[in-house]
Each structure stands twice: as C-alpha cells, then as structure tokens.
Amino acid sequence: MRTYAGSAGDVDCGTAGSGGRASSRRPDERIARAVAQALGDAHSVLNVGAGTGSYESADHTITAVEPSLALRAQRPARLATAIDAVAEHLPFTDGQFDASMALFTVHQWSDAEAGMREMRRVTRGPVTILTCDPALVRDFWLYEYAPDVLDVEARRHPSLSKLADALGGTVTTRSVPIPLDCTDGFNEAYYGRPEMLLDPAARQACSAWSFIDDRARQGFDISLRRALGSGAWDEAFGHLRSRPTYTGSLVLLRATP
User: Fold this and answer.
1) Which has fewest Cβ within 10 Å: 53, 117, 230, 249?
2) Which residues contact 125 (CB under 8 A, 6 or more apart)?
3) Rounded distance, CA 255 to CA 10, Å?
4) Listed residue (156, 223, 216, 155) closest to 194, CA to CA
C-alpha cells in the first residue's frame, strides 16, 4: 500500500493551512443532518477521503479511508483509525457496506469517476457525495473580488453528470442550504460575513486559495477592504447579511442501486 506523507490529491490538506483548517473547518450540525438523512438507517458506513473525520457520527459503524498520513494522524482518538488507501482502489469486497459517503473530497481525487465506481462496487445501499456543482461556483459574490480562486474551484470539482454516470442506478441531487452562522468555513459559508475572508486563517482553510500567489491574495484583500469601507459591497450584497440561509453550489448527491 502506498503511503502519502501529505495528500494523494492536488493539494496537501494535511499541512497546507493546517492551523486555519483546525479553527475554521468545524462540522456544521445542519449540514451533518443532511448527510445523516441521506445515509438513512445504514449501520456500516464507509467514509472515503475521510480526513480528520469531522462529519463521522456515532450513529454509524464507520470505516474510514484516508491516503494522507498527516490527516490520519490528526484524527481524534475516539474515531476509528483510518485505512491508508485511495478512492480509486478500495481494499474491500463487493457490497461490504450498507452505505458510503465522500464529503468535501472528490475534487481532491486523481480520478473521481473511478472513485465513484469503486464506492458503488463496495456499497449495498446509498452512496452519498457532498460536493460543489462547478456550474454554480462562479455565481458567488467572491468571483468579483477573487476570480482566480473560484476559477480554480470550478476546474477542480467534477461535473455532477460525470459523478452520476459513474455511480449508475438512481441518482438524486439536491442543494444544501448554507446557514448564515455556518461553522464549516468553506468560501460560501461566509456569504453574509465578508469580513471573515479578510482573515488569512479563514482563507487558508479553503484549499483553492493555495493555488493563487501572494500578489493575488494581497489584491483580493485590498479590493474587498476598499469595497467594505466605501459601502460598495453592502450596496450590492448587503441583503445577504440577514439572509438565514444561502443556496449556492453546495450539493448532496445520493445514488442507490
């Protein structure tokens, strides 16, 4: 089995911005409920690209797969030890699990479609994927201030149709509303709190920011500060400050045989 000191994907989430991730990427209970609903009454659940296990629930018997040594080391002692493997080559027998899930991870895989086929192979019931719809990523207000970041996001996330075709069976896709006080700090979580993205730690918690250089990050900081100071941001997007939830690119894809 190959061991990855950092990440098997296109960025090392185990070390890049690790401090920012620890403080900013905390599981949100409302998103967790949506995932739990999609898993249904499954007992055994495979978590692929499990990372530190932030959305793993005691309601399920979890088997975690994570190729990054750094992330495996960060898993709390109360969680099952993650298996060193990649989505594209899962070391399990056909139909071994009641359900499986992959949360905020498929954009990291070298071959997302192969990973979907493997998840389908080892899963008897629902396969649940929490991801972003690349067709909607650039609709977020951040695109006006950091287009390079969202261009990266749109390129990295596989299309929902490709994921669905690879999974086969009956596939449903639904948007996941993002709460205003979302504790899981991905970019859209700050839809009504733009000042939060001026914090470098908050930005570092989102891997797409690692693909742009310091000059671009500085340019974003200057332009957003200027827009907030002048009132231009609030004139265009201020209504978002009081919107209870935001429907953006975050989606939950569920496939059954």
Assistant:
1) 230
2) 40, 42, 97, 98, 99, 256, 257
3) 26
4) 223
Residue pair 4/11 in contact by the 8 Å Cβ criterion: no
- Count other Cβ atoms within 10 Å, centred on residue 57: 15
Specify the DSSP element, H or E, that contains 253: strand 250-256
Measure the CA–CA gap between 237 and 190, rounded to whole angstroms: 12
∠ CA 28-33-38, rounded to 5°: 130
**DSSP β-ladder status, 178-179 and 127-132:** unpaired
pTM of the model: 0.90
How many other C-beta atoms can be found within 10 angstroms of the C-beta atom of residue 242?
Answer: 8
pLDDT tens for the chain, 257 residues long, are 333 333 345 554 544 444 455 567 899 999 999 999 999 999 999 999 999 999 999 999 999 999 999 999 999 999 999 999 999 999 999 999 999 999 999 999 999 999 999 999 999 999 999 999 999 999 999 999 999 999 999 999 999 999 999 999 999 999 999 999 999 999 999 999 999 999 999 999 999 999 999 999 999 999 999 999 999 999 999 999 999 999 999 999 999 99
Helix (H) or strand (E) holding 48: strand 44-48
Contact between 217 and 203 under an 8 Å Cβ cutoff? The reply is yes
CB 151 within 8 A of CB 80: no
**Which 3 state secondary structure label does DSSP give 163?**
helix
